[in-house]
Amino acid sequence: MLYEKVLEMGNVDFTDTSTFTREQWLELRRTGIGGSDAGAILGLNKYSTPLSVYLAKKDFASFNGNAATEWGNILEDPVRQKSREELGIEIETVPGMFTSKENPFMNANFDGLVYIEGEKEIAGSVVSGLGGHEIKTSRTGEGFTNDEVPDSYYAQVQHYMAVTGISFFVLTVFIIDHYSGRHYVIPRNDDFIRNLIEVETEFWNENILANIPPAPTGNENESDLVKSLPMAENIELPLECEQLLDEKAEIDEQIKELKAKSDAIKEQIMLAMNNASADSDGAEKTTALCGGWKITFNSQTRKVVDTDALKKAGIFEQYARDSVSKVMRITKAK
Predict the structure, then answer these.
(1) Which residues are CB-neighbours of 295 under 8 A, at least 6 positions away?
(2) What pLDDT score does 231 carry?
(3) Which helix (H) or strand (E) holds 13?
(4) Distances, alpha carbon 262 to alpha carbons 8, 178, 259, in Å
(5) Element at 297 (helix H, strand E)
(6) More confident residue, 211 or 69
(7) Which of the four, 63, 105, 226, 280, has the lowest number of CB atoms within 10 Å?
């Protein structure tokens, strides 16, 4: 088994998770920082943030997957088999999680290991020996170029190499809309890894172990997690929150003023479009060009439900459903 070759390097401990329940697996993930956390902690993941990772490790909130992750799991085995055929190399899955002996809070659970006898050229790079294999799926291929992968995935495989000590990863992406796959070789980057370990160590010691959440970033997905946190009915906040609320009020006022200026500019542009239209009776669709800018001004039609008619017909309640959301309202005490 290829994973035994990693153990022989002496850098890691290993936990066999092949018989774990989902709950046991999630509990194990909370014991340390994994590769999918690395990009978020470094600020390289647009879907996750340091605070998101903190909340997951503290079991306050977690990502339970969506359609994209579900399809990613379904396609993993076929993509792995296709990679074996295209690359002509040995690829094995890993039946568990590696943990760094030097930094025990760093875990690595990745899709597979590759072994190349002699030397082989893959995606323009010559590699040999033991390496990792990571599989991604992407609907459009956004962030994947001829020779680059999204930053969060780069950080993810560098984290895996930091834990295990292996020297390269083959990352395979299947682009769903194009029905095609692409392979990348990502070599070990020791400078990146030194910085990664430093940032992750600080995060683990000063946030996770100290029970101090990182500062929020305003990320939309992060905000949804924060809204889901349990709260008491009546709370007295510390006085430093008043300074934050005062600051927010000032920012909101600036946003309001900027919004008014932005709307005024839109009106000026519409007046200019009207002046440039001469004796036109009015078009349903208008396109205007101005230097490097293009403006469209089109009529749109959308269907809406006539709730009054449904109520009069006595069928509104039959098809209505409750929608629950948490809303924060801030008012200045008089």
Answers:
(1) 269, 273, 287, 288, 289
(2) 85
(3) strand 12-16
(4) 63, 39, 5
(5) strand 293-298
(6) 211
(7) 280
Contact between 273 and 297 under an 8 Å Cβ cutoff? The reply is: yes
Tell me the per-residue pLDDT of 42-65, one tens digit each, with 9 for 90 and over: 999 999 999 999 999 998 865 555
Can you tell me which residue has the tokens 């007295």?
A: 236
In whole angstroms, how far apart are CA 193 and each of 19, 38, 108, 149? 32, 11, 14, 17
CB atoms under 10 Å from CB of 49, counted, come to: 23
Beta strands in 56-206 (DSSP E): 90-92, 96-100, 107-108, 112-122, 125-138, 168-175, 180-187
CA-CA distance, 166 to 94, in Å (whole number)?
A: 14
Tell me if 50 sits within 8 A of 40, measured CB to CB.
Answer: yes
Residue type, 323: S
Neighbours of 141 (CB within 10 A): 15
pLDDT of residue 224: 86
Q: Check: CB of residue 127 under 8 Å from CB of residue 113.
A: no
The contacts of residue 199 (CB under 8 Å, 6+ apart) are 41, 42
First to last CA, the chain: 70
| Beta carbons of 201 and 137 less than 8 angstroms apart | no
Question: Which tokens belong to 83?
Answer: 């990679």
For position 221, what pLDDT does the model report?
A: 87
CA distance 83 to 114: 11
pLDDT of amino acid 121? 95
Compute the distance between CA of residue 116 and CA of residue 185 in angstroms, rounded to an integer: 13
* Cβ 94 vs Cβ 76: under 8 Å: no
Q: Within its chain, how far is the Cα of 289 from the centroid?
A: 36
Q: Give the predicted TM-score (pTM) of the model.
A: 0.81
What pLDDT does residue 327 have?
A: 79
Q: For the packed helices 220-227 and 50-57, what is the interaxial angle rounded to 10 degrees?
A: 30
**Among 108, 111, 90, 110, CA closest to 99:** 108
